[in-house]
Amino acid sequence: MTASVDLEYPFTGRWLVQNSPANRVPSHGTALLATSYAIDFVPTDDAGRTAPITFSSLIRPEPTEKFPGFGRMILAPVEGIVVSAHDTEPDHPAYRGLPSIGYALTQQRRARAGWIALAGNHVLIEAGGVVVALCHLQQGSLRVRTGQRVQIGAELARCGNSGNSTEPHVHIQAITTPDIERAIAVPLTFRGTLPRNGEVIDVSE
Fold first, then answer.
1. Checking DSSP bridges between strand 188-190 and strand 5-7, what pairing results, if any?
2. Coil, strand or helix: which one is 131?
């Protein structure tokens, strides 16, 4: 088994780090579906902010179009073969404040429904015995197909809010096999390091 995999950042612009394995493992509080070393990146505006919190944000779901990174292009972080590409799941509203509590209460239902209900639209890239998953992509935005070889930086799809997601972001994890039920989590880094929660990553064009 590969000890770890080093990736390129799969985007340009400014992105906020959340649920980083640099802070804790398992990073998302569970080892379910090989997510022990998964990491989330939330797109921000030029000042490093996601959508502003308003009174409305606290009491009702918000349209995804309000968020600065919804629809931002997601790029291949590694050279390899696309072994799965799925983008028929709908993008749902974002949930912050009180709506996020109600949404959290339905998470077990999505977990029971399986991988697609959690990952939403996704691309899996196999590279050197490791599979890199990029999840929560925008419905209908795929630029690649299964069996296609991609180079680092190739356009994959757009940032969305599908699957188990409270606001538009990209979830990345590395695993040993595209068979998610049998996969083992693989530690990952980006450009040789692992950013911590709260850092804002700024990747130039």
1. parallel
2. strand
